[in-house]
Amino acid sequence: MQKKVSIKDIAKHLGVSTALVSYVLNNKEKEARVGPEMAERIRATAKEMNYQPNMIARSLQSGKTRTIGLIVADISNPFFSNIARVIEDEASLNNYTVIFGSSDENAEKSDSLINALIKRQVDALIIAPAEHTEEQLKLLRQQKFPFVLIDRYFNTLDANGVRINNFLASYKAVQHLAKQGYKKICMVAYQTRLPHMQDRKQGFFKAMEELKLPLHEFSLMESSYERIQEDVAAIMQRLLDNKKDRPDSFLFATNSLAINGLKEINKRKLSVPDDLGIISFDESDAFDFFYCPLTYINQSTERIGKEAVRILMNQLEEKPGKTSTDSDTTQLVIDAQLIPRESCGEKKKKR
After folding, report:
1. Where are the domains of the chain?
2. What CATH number should be reported for the domain whose range is 7-53?
């Protein structure tokens, strides 16, 4: 086995002190007044000799591992994978590494992931919280462990977070459908008490009420997360096979719900937008394979990811001795953008 290259080996090769090499490889050459040419030589030599820093030694010295734990509902979902990529890139710019985990919308799994990541000595967490995880997060807050919530939040918890204005996003989506001539609008959402999903539902109902659009028992249909395929199939069968009272448009509260809904629409050979108007929260690569470009609500995953890392870095870079208080929290609410495409074009008068 090849011997691991050390700072001492690099110093010997260049004929300089180990302290000088250490300053440069720890990005402290300015403090040690090392010239740019020498700093470049040291970095180039380290690369040529395949030097790998001893992260364990560094963490023992600094008290930090320079790692961040990221917990989302499902890393395979395009919405979360896109945010994860942004967070990974932004963390890297700050010399942090990200460890990923999926809670699968399960509070017990969320708790296990939080404990496992803390045992791995991550410096902080970024979390898209599952339902019934308030107490887990309150405990982190009490322990003054740095974390930022993304996408979701809890009314009972004062914590750092970044999310979109879900109420306004749904409200504007209904307005857009109504402007295009759709009246019998149905929203398909998740059956959950998570506030962000409740905000989407409330925005839907508020717009329907203000526009005096008809509300009926099928205006809001809900699917479980665990049985999404079966539940959405049953919902669409119930609604689409009832030709007399069939909705003329759908607002899907997530891209996963939309994908499963579109499968059922295709099975019945219904045309979008001629037979049905469609708007979905989030974009998805799967939408590219659908014959009609889908109108969607852009949740600005790039900004959510960047802002989450920025807020987290502010926590991690607090001055020694400074203690956080409840008033220190940052809760950033971003306006989502409706991207109009062909899936809810102007409804023909003959219909």
Report:
1. 7-53, 65-159+301-333, 166-299+338-344
2. 1.10.260.40
The verdict on domain 166-299+338-344 having CATH code 3.40.50.2300 is yes
Q: What is the dotted CATH code of the domain comprising 65-159+301-333?
A: 3.40.50.2300
pLDDT digits (tens, 9 = 90+) for 234-244: 999 999 998 78
| Integer angstrom CA distances of residue 22 from 25, 32, 41, 151, 267 | 5, 10, 13, 41, 65
CB 343 within 8 A of CB 272: yes
pLDDT digits (tens, 9 = 90+) for 106-157: 999 999 999 999 999 999 999 999 999 999 999 999 999 999 999 999 999 9
**Other C-beta atoms within 10 Å of 310: how many?**
15
**pLDDT at res. 60:** 45
Find out whether 163 and 304 touch, Cβ atoms under 8 Å.
yes
**What does pTM read for this prediction?**
0.80
